[in-house]
Design goal:
By secondary structure, the protein is mainly beta. The protein is built from one helix and eleven strands, in the order E-E-E-E-E-E-H-E-E-E-E-E. About 5% of the residues lie in helices and about 35% in strands. Strands 3, 4, 5, 6, 7, 8, 9, 10 and 11 form a nine-stranded antiparallel beta sheet that branches.
């Protein structure tokens, strides 16, 4: 077990259970390994905490909780990065932004594709899409 000091306090984690981003995240190419934080509150949101930088954490959610028509199919090159085959599960997650006015938005234009089989994730940019980087939650 290892520990990291974060804004959540000191966190102990097992390096074998990290969520690995082989290419980092958009704007954070050097952040490769994250801890999925346990939910203390019930709900659709959860945190991932960088182990490379204790100051960096992101709120994520499954966007289909809010946008029923949201479906992303990974391309072959993305499957290779995730180390998955056609039949393996792959989930699309969205980064959540909670601004001071509390009007929550989801980044639907740059989803995170996650494979539970490999525990790997990549962030992709969707081209020619109607999805927004700051999509407000449906009313």
């Amino acid at each position: 077990m290892k520990t990291i000091e974060t804004r959540f306090g000191e966190i102990e984690y097992d390096p074998q259970h990290l969520l690995h981003f082989p290419a980092g995240l958009i704007g954070f190419p050097n952040l490769r390994d994250f801890i999925v934080m346990p939910n203390k509150k019930k709900g659709p949101l959860f945190w991932i905490q960088s182990v490379d930088d204790g100051d960096i954490a992101f709120v994520l959610t499954d966007p289909t909780n809010f946008f029923l028509n949201y479906k992303i199919v990974p391309e072959e090159s993305e499957k290779a990065l995730l180390q998955i085959d056609r039949e393996d599960e792959c989930y699309a997650l969205s980064v959540v932004t909670v601004p001071p006015d509390k009007n929550i938005t989801l980044n639907l234009a740059a989803p995170i594709l996650f494979s539970p089989k490999s525990n790997r994730a990549i962030q992709v940019i969707l081209e020619n899409t109607e999805f927004q980087t700051k999509a407000p939650l449906p009313k």
